[in-house]
Amino acid sequence: MEFLIPSHQQRPADDPIFALNAEANARKKRGEAVINATVGDLLADDGTLAVLPTVAEALRDVPALQAASYAPLAGPAAFHAAVIGELFGDHPLGAQAIAVATPGGTGALRLALANFLEPGQALLTSSFYWGPYKTLADESDRKLVTFRTFVLDEAGRPGGLDVAAFESTLESTLEKQGRALIFLNDPCQNPTGYSMSDAEWGALVSAIERLAPRGPVTLLVDVAYYLYGSGDPRAFLRHLEPLLGKVALAFAWSGSKSYTEYGARIGALLVCDPDENRRKRTFDALSFSCRGTWSNCNHAGMLAVTRVLSDPALRAKVDEERAGLKRLLDGRVRAFNAAAAGTSLVFPRYAGGFFSTVFVPAGKRVAEVAARLREEGIFVVPQGDGLRVALCSVAERDVPRLVQAMDRALGA
Questions:
Q1: Domain's final residue, options 310, 336, 356
Q2: What would the DSSP string read from start to end of 24-79?
Q3: How much is the pTM?
Q4: How many domains would you assign to the chain?
Q5: What's the confidence (pLDDT) of residue 156?
């Protein structure tokens, strides 16, 4: 007799990325010259986790009794204020925002799915997306529908964001289910490394504004990597102002990447709304969901991040330390772009972030290309029509070998 419900009986035990990482590490321990471009953590060139020392020290300094105590269900009010201030700075959206603590950015996505979509309805995101978006949708009895991410030329090379495809898919989603929840990971999208231009943001927001009267729309911007982008990380916020009050503006905030505390599971879901009553109802609903899932979050982690964000001297030190990590990552980005010039590699505009995605030409099987690379000790993640390359975990000196191997595998 099988006791699991039928829809859960064939679920995989491990995430494919974690499984590939485990295989890469096992082969490295056997002495093989492995390049592991699967890991979603920022690693130093010696392969150790890159950690912001000031944040680690703040965690150690949390008093034991405070760390051991329960946090409020939605997180401490001081944590809410600190995260809102960090994301919005002096932008006016911050004055109309509520925040709820979550276990990492993943928890924020889970809360949004549970509260802005009915069971059986579909989440809308781009065709290149972080794989757990679908896992989260499946686990919460929701579906996932995608729009084509990029405009492609006749040779299949990606141009800018396909806003027309987005608008068409949003329109059909609203017609079918009467509401829409959109996940957009920007800037430094996982898995492509793409960041939308001002013009693309403007066109996308205009499309949402045209369709919003047809039903409730929630736009969630997944900002997990936004502090690793080039230029002003908050520049995109000005494009969202026309949507305030017309759609639910939500943000999945993560302390994992920005503060290099992946295991502390510090995150938040932020929602902006000019209507005070709606803000309260949203906060209450999200708090209820917290109680019904994880109850409350890592108290020590929230206290540490709150202290770092609230103390100007500590925050300045963290910003300086993160700038060093950005320089490390930017060196790998430049090396990748330089090594890929003149090769068969086709990938979207890549200016920063943890990942890039190399397209696999039509007629070639993505899984087979990835398998050929593993034979050479090169581990990347086969995903959709491409290979996700985690440059965050590859030393700059190894980037040329990585690119050369991919060029051979794609040409074979």
A1: 310
A2: HHHHHHTT---EE----S-B-TTSSBP--HHHHHHHHTS-HHHHHSPPPTT--HHH
A3: 0.95
A4: 2
A5: 76
